[in-house]
User: Fold Phage baseplate protein from Dyella halodurans.
Amino acid sequence: MPMLPLSGERLLAACEQAHGESAMLRAITLLAAVLPECGREQVLQWPIAQRNRLLLQLHRISFGPSLDGYAACTQCGTGMELHLAVADVLDDIDESRVPTGLEWLEADQPRSMRQATSADLLAAAQAPSEAIAEERLLLRCMGMDESSAPTLPADAMQAARVRFEQLHAASQLHCVMHCPECDHEAAWELDPVHFVWREARRAAGRLLNDVHMLALNYGWSEADIVSMNPRRRETYLELLEA
Assistant:
């Protein structure tokens, strides 16, 4: 599906809508903004692995081919920089490596499970406790609802947990960082939503600053400045600084 870069008015509108939303909803808002052929409801129903792939592709076409970050060593507190190629991360969650579902027999009863979607995670997040949230998520992925819980014994729920971990293992993004000071190694979770949202906020801030400077000095409207070719906008800003 064709994806538009997150820039110009599209960038500003998406950031305004995503401001104050949870990370889960931000992912939906940003993807819906750059995939005009898809509505929010459709994006909500995509498996998390597919959502993550599209977020990484969005980062690559809008903010560059590298994921850059910072973390403190959990052992000694030393700061460590992270630089990962988006292409390498995409290879790790290639569709061919991530199964869309699993089927198995449980006490001679056929069971099946699909990948979790954003809609599943949002529904689970509304549960009153972590235990109920986990149960709700598992049941939804198995095509059941909470009313089915009494018919699913404890050992079947445990088997479902194991299958869930197997199904989503390949779509969980991690990197191992090695501390240069104490040699401690630790695995860090990579959240595509975090990387894209951080870059989107920075880009929106820079664009609004450009609008302020150019409108102040040339009297142009916000719409005219935002729709301007980025290179031309940069040239005018360089002239102001000369």
In short: Residues 8-69+82-93+188-236 form one domain. The longest strand covers residues 66-72. The mean pLDDT is 91. The CA atoms of residues 47 and 116 lie 6 Å apart.
